[in-house]
Amino acid sequence: MKGTDLYHPLILKHNKNPLHFKVDNDGDKINAYNPICGDEFQIVISIENNKINKASFHGYGCAVSKSALDLLLDRIQNLDIPEAVAEIEKYLRVIELDDPPSSDVYSLAVFQKVKFHPARRECATLGANAILRHLRERLV
């Protein structure tokens, strides 16, 4: 696989069989929309006692946006809000690194290749940015 190839097998796996892709109306609803490409998801996060109990999403988007959101939701479930904010911020930093951690150590590092595909950066960060805005508002 070339150094700039975007579609890591983990991205393809979570696009085809996402773990958190389902309609659920029990929780906070967060809309994530990219007007440039049309990717659009509704994210639902159930928070109790300042902790994310469950998270899901539905809608449509490319393999990168769908799998990035799926993997991110997997990482933030069962975290309290400050921990989830820190995890999302970590993900956003990792995709910018010149020397990212291995995807075996940090699964979201598979999206680090978007830096070689600038038009896909928004795909990889669409859900993360929407959730981050929502969680920061809850912290105020």
Task: Describe what you observe in this structure.
- By secondary structure, the protein is α+β, with helices and mostly antiparallel strands.
- The chain has 4 helices and 3 strands.
- Strands 1-2-3 form a 3-stranded antiparallel sheet, with helices on one face.
- Helix 2 packs parallel to helix 4.
- The N and C termini lie far apart (44 Å).
Task: Explain briefly what this protein structure is.
With 140 residues, the protein is an alpha+beta fold. It has four helices and three strands.
Question: Can you give keywords for this protein?
Answer:
140 residues; alpha+beta; Sufe protein. Chain: A; three-stranded antiparallel sheet; 4 helices; 3 strands
User: Which fold name corresponds to the CATH topology?
Assistant: Sufe protein. Chain: A
| Separation, N- and C-terminal Cα atoms | 44 Å
Give the domain tally: 1
Report the strand count. Answer: 3
- What is the count of helical runs? 4
* pLDDT < 50 runs, ≥5 residues: none
Structural class, judged by helices and strands? alpha+beta
In spatial order, strands of the major sheet run 1-2-3
Order of helices and strands: HEEEHHH
Overall body shape: globular
The amount of helix comes to 25-40%
State the CATH architecture. Answer: Alpha-Beta Complex
**Average pLDDT figure:** 92
Lay out the secondary structure.
Layout lengths: L8 H8 L11 E6 L6 E9 L2 E10 L2 H14 L4 H14 L26 H19 L1
